[in-house]
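JOB MANIFEST
job_type = single_chain_structure
chain_count = 1
residues = 229
[input]
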Amino acid sequence: MIKAVVTDIEGTTTSISFVADVLFPYARERIAQFVIEHARDPDVAAEIDAVRKQINESDASLERVGEVLVSWIDQDLKITPLKTLQGIIWRVGYEDGSLKGHLYPEVAQRLRAWKAAGVQLSVYSSGSEAAQKLLFGYSEAGDITPLFDHFFDTRIGGKREAASYEHIKQALHLPGEQILFLSDIVQELDAAAAAGVKTIALDRQCIGEGFGAHPVVNNFDQIDLGSVR
């Protein structure tokens, strides 16, 4: 019996285009000026210092730091100070109503149904815990963060590494056969399966292939937790 569901975000609960075409451009447009205007804020100052250390330029100007951050966004690099600053900028956007977290239409209702049935729910994403909470806290379906027991990010390990799912099993205090991991990335599903976790692939684009031996669905409504084997 499945007692816990762990879900990816991008391509699973949320459109890839929302992240690629809304969130990333939103931060890219603002990040250089943001570090200049908020350089004295302790949280921002710490990340500016982290950027300087990352590029080994202790005296880099704020303008130089901004240029580096924009270049990291353009290269789609997953560097901690960039992710943190993106999260801070997104928070401003969510709080002032400029951003609303996208969810596929059935996601919130299905998550609520699983929660009501006593299933433990968690998120596992390469985006930071803070970014995850913003997306679900300011989602098109309202604040659904109370549905989740855990927000796992890459601090627990890479999503394509079986050891990460071993850590998740320990955090959930459940054996792998009682945990279901949902993702649209076959390498992540393979890693989860290698750790003994049950898997289902989300094929939102109805491609119909590329998911290996993992069971495939097109949306959450097609998932029957009672029939997962």
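[summary]
The chain has eight helices and six strands.
Helices lie at 16-37, 42-54, 62-74, 80-95, 107-116, 129-137, 162-172, 186-194.
exit_status = 0
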